[in-house]
Design goal:
single chain; 3 domains; eight-stranded mixed beta sheet; 7 helices
Length: 244
Amino acid sequence: MSARIKAFTIHLTISAVIALAVIGVVFYLWYPAPLHTVVGVTQIFLILLAVDVVLGPLLTLLVYKVGKKSLVMDLSVIALLQLAALCYGLLTVAEGRPAWLVFAADRFDLVRVLDIDERKLDQTDLNYRQPSLLGPQWVAATNPTDSDERNDILMESVFAGVDIAQRPNLYQPLDSQKESIKKRLLELSDLPANNTAEDIKAVLAKHPKADTWLPLRANNQDMVVLMHKDTAEVVAIVDLRPWK
């Protein structure tokens, strides 16, 4: 094996190991299935990662030459460019990751990091000021008691797209809203007809504790949150359509 091919192979192996670690973080922590489909990150991220993994080793293959005076500099520049591209991609994915799964009114809303309304973070419970790096958290959002503030939120939701689900200052533990959730739970027989009977049966077979559901609204693909009626606990997010 020539020195150039050996350098290419080593660089490709290192890049692949780093890529696998990054995939683990992104798809097991930040975007656990099926949320990567809900948000629509999979294809773009994998393309960026594939380009980053392949391009660095290819550049090494092109520039590597034993005894070349500028070899260390060339390889350092390639590594820095590859690292910069990876960091940029990770930052973009981190900003778009699901931060909160928020029960609000009669459904759940998926709130990404970039969707969060930060204007009243100083009035926000410490538990909700910073989204977790270990995955999205389940919470509830309730309307403020002040009528003027409620009207302001209503106007902003209509004209600016900022609803209560995006306001951490209105968050509470999901358990605190169990009674409200129970009133909104939908029967499995109410799942829209655009879900096939086979799909519904297959999903429910995997989650036998589920006996009710609520819609999950997201930016790319709305899905269904399976629930347990008696406890109002979340069972799973599943790839079914909540709307006709």
